[in-house]
Amino acid sequence: MTQPSPPPPLTPVGLRCAHQVNPLGVAPGRVRLSWRPDGAGRGRAQRGYQIVVAADQADLVRGYGTSWDSGRVASAESADVEYLGRPLAPGGRYGWRVRIWDERGAVSGWSEPAWFEVELDPGGWRASWIGLGRVRESFRPPDGPGPVDPVARALTPAPYLRRAFTVGQPVSAARLYVTALGLYEARLNGRRVGDAVLAPGWTDYARRIPYQTYDVTGLLRPGENVIGALLADGWYSGFAGFDAKRAGAHYGAAPEFLAQLVIRFGDGTDQWVVTDHRWRARFGAIRHADLLMGECHDLALESRGWDAPGFDADDWHDVRCRDRDGRPLVADPGPPIRVAQEIAPRRIVRDAAGRHIIDFGQNLPGWLRIKIDGPAGTCVRIRHAEALAADGSLYTDNLRTARQTDEVTATAGAQIFEPRFTLHGFRYAEVSGYPGELDPADVVARVVHSDIPVTGSFASSQPWLNQLFANIDWGQRGNFISVPTDCPQRDERLGWLGDAQVFARTACYNRDVAAFFGKWLDDVADAQLPSGAFPDIAPRLNLEWAGAPGWGDGGVIIPWTLYRMYGDRGVLRRHLAAMTAWMDFLEKGNPDYLRTRDLGNNYNDWLAPGEDRTSRELLATAYWAHDAALMAEIAEVVGRPGDAAGYRALRSKIGSAFTDAFVSADGRIASGTQTAYALGLHMGLIPGELRQAAAGYLVDAIASEGWRLTTGFAGVGCLLPALSGHGHTSVAYRLLAQDALPSWRYMIDQGATTIWERWDGWTRAAGFQSPLMNSFNHYALGAVGEWLYRFVLGIELAPGAAGFDRVILRPHPGGQLRWARGSYRSVRGLIASEWDNDGETFRLRAGLPPNVTASVRVPSGDARAVRDATGGPPAAIADFPGAAGVQEAVFEVGSGVHEFSGPVMTE
Ligand code: BGC
């Protein structure tokens, strides 16, 4: 008999630096490397790695790590390796490769090379800020004659900027380093540079200004070249947040542009083209462009070819030029915003006035691209809304002062209109003034959000549950736009920390948000008050709201979530000082360990249905205790055992104060709300012997509401996990399947395609909720997504695991579900779970990537009878935490596909 040949060695694939593929700008301190060990077969594991980093391509090819050679490191780490080589040169380009040793000691070849380029230091910038100032050209107010419209008066045309220059020899490489105070679109020789939109994104521009780096080698040519840019107000000087009167007052008065093009020639010389007084400017077709209000083009005013050689710019104006100040320019650590998808109209109807009403069938963030073919001067106006009123017209009351209106005045003949410096949250668009019948092939919705790759999937035998999963993901897509916003449509769109922290775990399962949240946490730190209070909102706007329980705590919860989901220790190190200041702030204000002071705006269990009866002190203290527990773990991870002990002691003092104040001897919790129990159980604040009793009271609290939930933002994410963690998965399923108000299913039954801000955003009985606060795209209540991954599919981090090196795979079958399947593409590879329940036999198929081990837990009516596909019996039998009196069969497995079956569980 021949022995089966051993599998080929594992190979390293998917190389990343700072969570990005070959980033062109990364701060030296953020250079952390990762890869995935790839290979078929079972029980595959990495036992060692070697990394080489070199500035010189030839060195890299030969495997010489002239900048860093890690040598062979005996380690399973593949998700987060810190660069420990020679200092990296600002602006330098580095290649890197890795090879790995597998479980048999076999070594792979060197990986395909990857690279990164290092952020410029202040000395690497020679450019000056340029702009046109805030020039008010006279233009037609959109509403025609009548009273002066203050919004129209505040909107000004978008500057066009250009500079011609000559390239005298063949180019070997060229980089464009570019940013704006405002928004920019860079152009080179008539072509758009890159495919990012709404760049450079949003930060507190007073604290840091992100810039982008583009490889423009292929866009240059010998002879005359032209670099150009369009500029708009964006978050910097446009309408932002919810105080329309303050337009332009947040960060600055008018947009400015900063760019430097660095061209390298084969002979080692270089040429720099930087923004300075030599640039020329004028206005063009874009009469105004504003994120909240919309964009207006007059195509007759466009100068064709303005951004290409051979154009006569004699009548263009001088630019206003200003030296750079001390504000740091940072290589954008987050993913760019891009057009992620196009959606064709589902239906177009015409109303009595002849306007076209388009239904795209999906509430989405973005804008339209539309073809117009009519006589010169044809004026088309497009309004956007999330919902229709009863008469079929656009319902825009909930947009508050945001106009979400685009307009174009066309020239003769066929042309395409598409805005670029605005953003609308909408499912419906109303097109007025369109010449003739609008052909569905001539209009498309462009979906615009940060480029966060999909990592999660879910499908089940219940169509409404699949719709819920889709709505949760759309809620995320609708709001992950440079920062995690609350909503994409009304005059708000702010980076609320409370919403983000309750949704963070779900967000990480759905999509790769490591770089996205990594960037936003810098905004959070920038917005921290000198007192140490974390803000309610980041980036900072004109508000100094801070310290609200459940909001400020996001400053600890989110870094911790990123560490656990992605194994990223860097994010903990970067935020340690900010987190420590927050903990000091809380302790200083609350010396008796109940969090009763410095509660800021204190939103408590925001938007809990009915009356929010959860005790404010209880909620605040629970979050503080949770912070302390997380800080103890964080301190261990970053190698500060002394601090960890201090936080454990703090946690125990807060815990005792909590129990004394809020937990009675029989396990009842003060105020008795679902949120109070869910937080208490989830955050481990109920003494062990009382936990089951408390979970029983939680079930009573749900039953007394007719099996409906009463949680708001603060409680919603932990409600189902708290139930499943304490033997009540069947109640969790019952809540999930509830279709009466308030419930997730109610929204779905009303046709929701996203998650609503309020359970009763629209009801059959009362119609629309108050227009003052009624978004139909607000992800917070979608925090239930986490339960679908962690419990329905059962893809859960093992205790102490980071980046899914160790997994507990424990599906929780229940409700009316006959089957469920899904996956999570972790930093170590794809983890898949698929189960079905035919009433007699429960079958589970689990897939694990190399270098990951799992404890697979199969709940069963007869756990001893559960077998893996080879007939192997379980390694152990344990109590299944998801249901009282049920046991689970335990199998310890490594990579590969594993199948299990056994008698179904009975409760
Ligand atoms: C936002 C929320 C936010 C809240 C704070 C609202 O206006 O839309 O999502 O968390 O304010 O209470």
Write structural notes for this entry.
By secondary structure, the protein is an alpha+beta fold. It contains 16 helices and 47 strands. Strand 36 and strand 37 form a beta hairpin. It is globular, with a radius of gyration of 29 Å. The two termini are 48 Å apart. About 1% of the residues have low confidence. Bound molecules: beta-D-glucopyranose. Beta-D-glucopyranose binds next to helix 5.
How would you classify the helix and strand content by structural class?
alpha+beta
- Beta-strand residue fraction: 25-35%
Nearest-integer average pLDDT: 96
Report helical residue fraction: 10-25%
Distance between the termini: 48 Å
Associated small molecules: beta-D-glucopyranose
Morphology call:
globular
Largest sheet: 10 strands, mixed
Q: Provide the gyration radius in Å.
A: 29 Å
What's the β-strand tally? Answer: 47
List the uncertain runs: 136-142
Q: Given the structure, what is the number of helices?
A: 16
